[in-house]
Specification:
The protein is of the alpha+beta class. The chain has 2 domains: about 190 residues, Fructose-1,6-Bisphosphatase, Chain A, domain 1, CATH 3.30.540; about 120 residues, 3-Layer(aba) Sandwich (D-Maltodextrin-Binding Protein, domain 2), CATH 3.40.190.80. The chain is built from 8 helices and 17 strands. It has an 8-stranded mixed β-sheet, sandwiched between helices. Strands 12-11-13-17-15 form a 5-stranded mixed β-sheet, with helices on both faces. Strands 1-2 form a two-stranded antiparallel sheet.
């Protein structure tokens, strides 16, 4: 767990990580190196995203992922970048990706390490062709299995056991946000020097100046009666406004900076929810809660859910604590 670092005018992510490591006499540098590797992968993905439309990287491939969704070219590129950035370092025991069916093993010719990395390489890829912000989400666990190369149980750990979690949003600027359990820090990529610079130290979800909820209301007719009552309350007597981008990373990034309530409820088409617990919900839950917010599946903490499968889905409510608690009250039928 990293401690907070004093403010400075120019702090690169490399310097930040090294300075944080000094707070821990037992640190070997392995975790710091792993975060360096993830940041490097983010730079490469960001470079390719900003070239979309100039090179042949837009559009779909002829493949489908494990969820039956058509794979975009940038999905495949981002997935391979993350795998190749991490599989040879000797820091990782195994990986799992939203784009892959099972575990991603470390090749036999490379040493294996003590960490497990789980990632959604390019969240919001359906928005690629229309230049809406997209992102990468990642989560780090410590290996708990006996085998040197990792096992399924290493990935099926609850969010409370995450060592770190983060996301990268590729928008008007590229920003990396992460937590290792001692606050949330944001870094903006300066393309002129190719470095992530500390721009948002010790991020906290603010008390929102405007009440905002975020949900895809096109599914209203598919929702439970309790969910319908909740949204009706928010936009009528609750006095909330609506903001919905449709890119999970972008919606959560806005909620983190401005406050509000993000929801992706279960519905008749997705009775167990649509977002993936391991690749999307748990990492974002850790970030939101480290920033003073709350993350729930509508009835219990997202961080405490014990995963049963790699691609398990979940309903999701996260953002300002009071708003999530209000949502839970409506969903429980107590309001």
């Amino acid at each position: 767990m990293f401690a907070a670092m004093p403010d400075s005018h120019v702090v690169t992510i490399s310097r930040f990580l090294v300075d944080q490591q000094r707070f821990h006499s037992e640190a070997t540098g392995a975790f710091t190196s792993l975060l360096h590797d993830i940041a490097l992968a983010a730079k490469i993905i960001s470079r390719e995203v900003t070239k979309a439309g100039l090179v042949d990287i837009l559009g779909a491939t002829e493949e489908e992922n494990v969820h039956g969704e058509q794979v975009q070219k940038l999905d495949m590129f981002a997935n391979q970048v993350l795998i190749k950035a991490l599989d040879h370092t000797g820091l990782v025991a195994c990986m799992a990706s939203e784009e892959s069916d099972g575990l991603i093993p470390i090749p036999d010719q490379f040493p294996a390490g003590d960490y497990v990395v789980i990632f959604d390489p390019l969240d919001g890829s359906s928005n690629i062709d229309v230049n809406v912000s997209i992102g990468t989400i990642w989560s780090i666990h410590r290996k708990v299995s006996k085998g040197a190369r990792g096992a399924l149980e290493d990935c099926l750990q609850p969010g409370t056991r995450q060592v770190a979690a983060g996301y990268v949003v590729y928008g008007s600027s590229t920003m990396l946000v992460y937590t290792s359990g001692a606050g949330v820090h944001g870094f903006t990529l300066d393309p002129s020097i190719g470095e992530f610079l500390l721009s948002h130290p010790r991020m906290r979800i603010p008390e929102p100046s405007k009440k905002v909820y975020s949900v895809n209301e096109a599914y209203y007719s598919r929702w439970s009666r309790e969910q319908q009552r909740l949204v009706t309350h928010l936009k009528n007597e609750g006095g909330f406004g609506s903001r919905y981008i449709g890119s999970f990373v972008a919606d959560i990034h806005r909620t983190l900076l401005q406050g509000g309530l993000f929801m992706y409820p279960a519905d008749t088409g997705s009775p167990k929810g649509k977002l993936r617990l391991l690749y999307e919900a748990a990492p974002m839950a850790m970030i939101v809660e480290q920033a003073g917010g709350l993350a729930s599946d509508g009835a219990r903490s997202l961080m405490e859910i014990q995963p049963e499968s790699l691609h398990q889905r979940t309903p999701l409510y996260m953002g300002s604590r009071a708003f999530v608690e209000l949502a839970e009250s409506y969903l429980a039928g107590s309001v």
